[in-house]
Amino acid sequence: MKVLVTGSAGFIGGYLVEELLGRGHEVVGLDNFSKYGPVSHSYDDHPNYRFTEGDARDTELVTKLLEGCDHFVAGAAMIGGISYFHAYAYDLLATNERIMAASCDAAIKAHQAGTLKKMTYVSSSMVFESTDRWPSREGDQHEVPPPMSSYGFQKLAVEYYARAAWDQYRLPYTIVRPFNCVGIGEGRALGSTEVMSGNVKLAMSHVVPDLVQKVLKGQDPLHILGAGDQVRHYTYGGDLARGIATAIEHEAALNEDFNLSTAESTTVLQLAEVIWRKIKGPDTPFRYVSDEPFAHDVAMRVPDVAKSREVLGFSADTGLDTMLDEVIPWIRQAVEDGRL
Fold this sequence. Notes:
10 helices, alpha/beta, two-stranded parallel sheet, NAD(P)-bd_dom_sf, Epimerase_deHydtase, NAD-dependent epimerase
């Protein structure tokens, strides 16, 4: 297939492009480098990859890039860690709505022209932000209160775009919900808001790189948000890419939605101690203090992964130790280079 991936230079996008190329697909990438600035990837010169620097809110540009494409992965978004939800509450909503509307407008035209077969929408575990039931199953997002954060609310809106474009224009879709992606490729976000955690400035990205950089920079005791009893499912970026690519290709994914995640639960405090031990060794006592948590720091984010396993044959099996063995050296180099 020929696949357009918006947000192709992003965190998950980078893993996805590599996975799609490895499966023999032709990939067209679009990104405006708004989060980290220009980044490079090992596949940049791949003969089946063509990249355009541009804005996914530009309907005319997206329409042009969709020419000849069989599939469209709508992955572009203004996105960040929990601190983004507060620093950019309006921008997350407004920017991502404009991206989504432009993407759907272009996709509908391409489908009506007879070329585009399906659109895959990258949603988020944050659609379950206000849930009162765990594990969170596909469909629960329609039965529990809506997300409190503007980011979570907009990601729920993404799923409504998918179904509305099908209802009115018969644009086929698949919705995927990644849970807590862990991997390499993240840097310090370009946002103007500075967020401190103890004596270390957060990268405004995600909990794993922020905890790693704090330990590497010698923070002792380690500062964590809240009591550390927040439950997460840390999922390897390569596994998520494999899940998304499988959902793209699988006939049974048509007009369906899937949680893509590891089945393993880990608390933030457990994660922090594993990172501490990997960097400092077994002899340095693990010390931490609790900082005031952000308002939208969800206590439990636990997915039901049965549907993706049974329908797609997908499971995210990379363990936390393996992920950290890849991420920690990458973060260490970024700290040494002054990028974090």
